[in-house]
Design a protein that fits this description.
Helices cover 44% and strands 12% of the residues. Strand 1 and strand 2 form a beta hairpin. It is an alpha+beta fold. It has a three-stranded mixed sheet with strand order 1-2-3. The radius of gyration is 33 Å and the shape is flat.
Length: 190
C-alpha cells in the first residue's frame, strides 16, 4: 500500500493512457469496392428517372429525351411534352399535354394530328388520342448531331491514313489533315 501511495496521480494517468493507446487496433480506411465499366449518363437516366417520369404521366422517359426525334426540329423548338394522361385502367387513348412557347398555339392546332401520329408511331400503338396545349416557357434543346459518316480516305491525303484500322481515329486524322490543307479564312467584320 505504501508503494501505491508514494506514486503521484499524474504518473498513474500517464501509464493508463499509454496502455489505452497500445490496446486500440489501427484505424482502417474504408475503400469502396469497384466493379463494372463506366456508363454514360444517358444510359442511366431511364433507370433513375423512371419513377419520377411515371409520377408525371410518362410511361416511357424516352418520349421526353427523344422529343426532337419524334416531332422534328421545328416543332421541338417551340414545344415540350409535359405529361401523358391515360383514362383510368387503360394505356391507350391518352391525352398528351404540351407546353408551347409564344404565339405558336394556332399553328400547332393545325398540326396536332401530325403530332399525334408521330407520337403513336413512336409508341407503336394508338397511345395518344388528343393533345392539350398550355402556354409556357420552352427552352429549345441542342440539336442532336448525327455521327460522322465514315468516308474513304481521299487520294490527296496519301496512303498513310489508309493503314489505320480504327475508323474513328482515321476520321479524326482525316479532318485534321483536311483542316490543315485548307488556307485560313479571314474573319468577317460586320
Amino acid at each position: 500500500m505504501t508503494k501505491d501511495a508514494g506514486e503521484d496521480a499524474p504518473a498513474k494517468k500517464a501509464k493508463a493512457k499509454g496502455k489505452a493507446k497500445t490496446a486500440k487496433p489501427p484505424v482502417r480506411v474504408y475503400e469502396r469496392p469497384r466493379g463494372g465499366e463506366a456508363r454514360m449518363v444517358s444510359d442511366l437516366v431511364p433507370e433513375i428517372g423512371r419513377a419520377a417520369f411515371r409520377k408525371f404521366g410518362f410511361v416511357q422517359s424516352s418520349v421526353v429525351s427523344r422529343w426532337r426525334e419524334i416531332v422534328g426540329d421545328k416543332l421541338a423548338d417551340v414545344t415540350q411534352p409535359a405529361m401523358i394522361r391515360f383514362p383510368a385502367g387503360q394505356k391507350a387513348g391518352g391525352t398528351l399535354h404540351l407546353t408551347i412557347s409564344g404565339a405558336h398555339a394556332p399553328m400547332l392546332q393545325h398540326v396536332a394530328p401530325d403530332i399525334i401520329g408521330a407520337v403513336n408511331r413512336f409508341f407503336g400503338y394508338a397511345a395518344v388520342a388528343q393533345v392539350r396545349m398550355t402556354h409556357g416557357q420552352v427552352t429549345p434543346a441542342a440539336p442532336v448531331q448525327q455521327p460522322a459518316m465514315l468516308k474513304p480516305v481521299p487520294a490527296e491525303l496519301g496512303d498513310s491514313l489508309r493503314d489505320i484500322g480504327d475508323p474513328e481515329l482515321r476520321t479524326v486524322l482525316e479532318r485534321m489533315a483536311a483542316g490543315l490543307a485548307t488556307p485560313p479564312k479571314l474573319p468577317r467584320i460586320s
